[in-house]
Amino acid sequence: MPSAPEITISLLAIAVLWWSCPLKFKLRSLPPGPWPKPLIGNLIDISFRDPWATIKDWKTCFGNVVYIEIFGNKLVLLNSLQAVTDLFEKQGVLYSHRPEAIMVGELMGLDQSIGLSNNDKSWKQQRRLVSIALGPKAFKQHAKTQADLAARMILELHQNQANHHEIINLAAARLIVQITYGHFIKDMTDPYIIKADQVFDLISSSIRPGAYLVDSLPWLKNIPKWLPGSPHRPASKGKAMFEEFIGVPFEHVKLQMLAENSVFIFAASILAAYSINPVGETPLVEPKFSLGLISHPEPFECKFTPRNPAIHNLVKAQLDGGLYGH
């Protein structure tokens, strides 16, 4: 008669084989995808240096909807606008929830931000608050700010064409930060921009698949902070960085509200809309949504330069003729 250890080992072997068996894909009607390896799934199939290249290759092999596993986490990758529209718009109630990010979300404190929260009451409230200050009607009040910053950007591009990438990034950051917090950014050495870059780099590195084991094994979050390898150590550093990034500009807005100098500031509009006293109150919605936009404004540049090269060359020729006489 088999002993208890032998039975236990046999059951574990059967569980591992079933977990990695391709029959599982057929039984669960999952989308096609690369073959997962036992325990780690498709972890080593992804290039951590450039994961988007791997996802693009999978689109060629498996189509617009790809299924992968990483340490038991089930992921579905959407590689076309049509697939995104079908699932997130037409069936958004079922499929529009965010993936659970234990490290960045729960432990570092970004789970309540508009970018990582699920489609629940809190998220809908945040969307309503954003529409109050940044809706089509409200945004008309920012027309002068946009015009002034656009003129400044054109002047800086004319004076220093070699650094057009930095100038366009700076213009995007100026617009977002000035509208959100009423703070003017002189250059890319502004403390807020430096902090935004640091925070965005931290998020990018922390949210990658396999970056932290706690994202794959959530029970690790119960390990005490004093134990070696505890996820709470890097999480506490990240949380402190987030709180500083959010808190400093928000305090600046509160001071402007007290000085009655906060007209047309997004954060002030949020506070005023809900009649929150600017002294000693925690904001209902932390405006973290600006984080990615401030740190990653490359899409502005993509539309700025290559979209209409013929018109760009024509305008350049006319400007050269007016400015230089040829």
Automatic annotation (TrEMBL):
Q: Name one GO cellular component term.
A: membrane
State what protein this is by name.
Cytochrome P450
The GO molecular function terms of this record are: heme binding; iron ion binding; monooxygenase activity; oxidoreductase activity, acting on paired donors, with incorporation or reduction of molecular oxygen
Q: Which cofactor does it need?
A: heme
Q: Which family does it belong to?
A: Belongs to the cytochrome P450 family.
Q: Where is the signal peptide?
A: 1-20
Give yes or no: UniProt keyword Membrane: no
Q: Which UniProt keywords apply?
A: Heme, Iron, Metal-binding, Monooxygenase, Oxidoreductase, Signal
Record keyword Kinase present: no
Entries under Gene3D superfamilies matching the protein: Cytochrome P450 (1.10.630.10)
Species of the source = Mycena chlorophos
Instruction: Write one Pfam family the protein is assigned to.
Output: p450
